From TrEMBL:
Pfam families: Methyltransf_11
Gene3D superfamilies given in the database record: Vaccinia Virus protein VP39 (3.40.50.150)
Organism of this sequence: Tardiphaga robiniae
Protein name: SAM-dependent methyltransferase
Classification via CDD domains: AdoMet_MTases
UniProt keywords, alphabetically: Methyltransferase, Transferase
InterPro entries: Methyltransf_11, Methyltransf_Superfamily, SAM-dependent_MTases_sf
Keyword Transport: no
């Protein structure tokens, strides 16, 4: 059995607490996954939306081939991101906004690419967030996710199920299955799964890429 999706209030409270130490604690742990996602986004280029931009930990992973807009629920996390923007080191970061990814204020087909790093397993309704990402990305554009996904079987899966209950108050969810992402894509006629791969060296994280098909443009 897997646990229920995380409630918005749990995530907001948890990440307000994480904000002061997030870069120091999570930066090294998430480095390989973060860079893999940003590399995939740079290959697309253009206007990139980063969902769950947090403290702007990923700003260093982009460059002038991209124009970054970030959104996040957590005001304390965004305060850290805005402080980084004021240094002038990240001219490619155009804006960060406090926004719920379940109901984005952006117009349809605004971005060339949407990136969600370590986010989709934590939101209240993952399928709704995916649908919003699909709405705001252009036809031919990509949705890039990186996350730890549920191991499904064996000892690792048992540990993840046990940890799921223990870590909910920390805003973590280690037992989210890939099958939910796949089912969402299969139910959407304008979405295709482009890539699913483990991130080296240890395969702790999985990179998943969906494309909004060009058929959406014809429609």
């Amino acid at each position: 059995m897997t646990t229920l999706d995380l409630e918005k209030s749990i995530v907001e409270t948890a990440y307000a607490r994480w904000a002061p130490i997030y870069d120091a604690v999570c930066g090294p742990v998430m480095l390989k996954g973060r860079r893999a996602a940003a590399e995939a986004a740079r290959a697309v280029g253009g206007k990139v939306l980063e969902v769950g931009v947090g403290t702007g930990l990923s700003f260093d992973d982009y460059d002038a081939t991209t124009e970054i807009t970030g959104i996040d629920l957590s005001a304390p996390m965004l305060a850290k991101a805005r402080a980084k923007m004021t240094t002038g080191r990240y001219p490619w970061v155009k804006d960060v906004q406090e926004m719920d990814a379940h109901a984005m204020s952006f117009a349809d087909a605004t971005f060339d690419c949407v990136v969600a790093q370590f986010v989709i397993t934590l939101v209240e309704n993952p399928e709704q967030v995916l649908s919003e990402c699909h709405r705001v990305v252009k036809p031919g554009g990509r949705i890039i996710l990186v996350n730890h996904l549920y191991s499904e079987t064996g000892l690792a899966a048992a540990v993840e199920r046990w940890a799921a209950v223990k870590t909910r108050s920390l805003g973590l969810r280690p037992e989210f299955p890939f099958a939910r992402l796949q089912a969402w894509s299969q139910s959407n006629a304008e979405s295709i799964l482009v890539e699913r791969r483990k991130v080296a060296p240890f395969g702790i994280y999985t990179l998943v890429t969906f494309e909004r098909t060009a058929a959406a443009l014809a429609a």
